[in-house]
Amino acid sequence: MATSNIERALRKNERGAVALSFDVYEVRKQFPVLQREIDGNPLVYLDNAATTQKPQAVIDALVSYYSNNNSNVHRGAHILADEATRLYEAARDSVAGFVNAFSRKEVIWTSGTTEAINIVANGAKQLLSPGDEVMVTQMEHHANLVTWQQVCKHSGATLKVVPINDDGELVVEQFHQMLSDNTKFVAMPHISNALGTINPIEELIPAAKAKGAWVLIDGAQGIAHGVVDVQALGCDFYAFSGHKFFAPTGIGALWGKEDVLKDWPVWQTGGEMISEVSYEDASWGELPNRLEAGTPNIAGAIGLGAAVEWFKQFDIDAVKAHEEAIMQYAVEKAKAFPGFIIKGNAKNKIGVLSFLLEGGHPADIGFLLDKQGVAIRTGDHCAQPLMNRLGVPGTARASFSMYTTKEEIDALFDALKKVQMMLM
Description:
By secondary structure, the chain is of the alpha/beta class.
């Protein structure tokens, strides 16, 4: 699992083209909260699939904006408005470059992945008809399942669900079989938030596009584990949240192809998104404004831009190699731990270890780990139908980021030994 990126990084290092420049311990120094103690124990933060912690560079960007440049953007006739607008739009440029957008106009600011998906789905309600089909998967987060479920109820389209196998992998053969000339939309996760499964979207997107379908990728977890190249992927939409990528909460982006977004039905109406308004009618502005009504989350956008610029300093192959090594190490520890049941054994996975412990309820496990300074998440992870497929009400979930260390994995399993003793 970790071999490819490790070998690639090492090969670059031998050639002298790119140094293997990633020191997790130096990286951790940039995250103030990681220096905390909980009940006298060093914080072991393993809830990164829910939200990542923020480096000082992002915190500083937020403080600087509010301290020096706070203003609304685009229309103010004063220096603060000009400064705020420049910072805000520079952040859009950073995000556009990071995902390799064709144009900066294709980056639409949202409150996060959920709003981004809803922007697309709201338009789809008006474009789908009875007889049309929408495909999702059995591993969806509620944001990408319930939203399309409701679109189908509204439009009369049929919702089709691609199954997963017992290891938590998409049944790719079924995906291809379920595609038809009636498939108008495919919406699926890049990486499962509950299992860590990496879906083979590079193979699935072209198959869906060959049927003439629009394709939306829920990239909430994908953006957190490496660089996303939307041009290479070939999807129509890619949705993600800033807070899972070291940026503030309440900010995210919808990337969409310009030729699709320029005529996409508007999501909200109000200030900034209009061209002309009379008492009788209104016309909409151009991208990206037409899909960004009202005063935006200016500070959040600046924070997301700062997160992108901060992340770009690292050798991405080295970061991926580290994350894959942490995942592999955690799985090896789990397999050697008596009574530990992994839920989700995909061959290609990253960042998530969902599990059960014999004799323990996930909520009890989470509570007892917290008393030892280990932060995880428990429950259904906003994926109730997936939990039903797995035959469990929920799991405990440890999730990792670029700043996770092997010592933290050791601390998790040491704490689990005490949990096991308390629950027996």
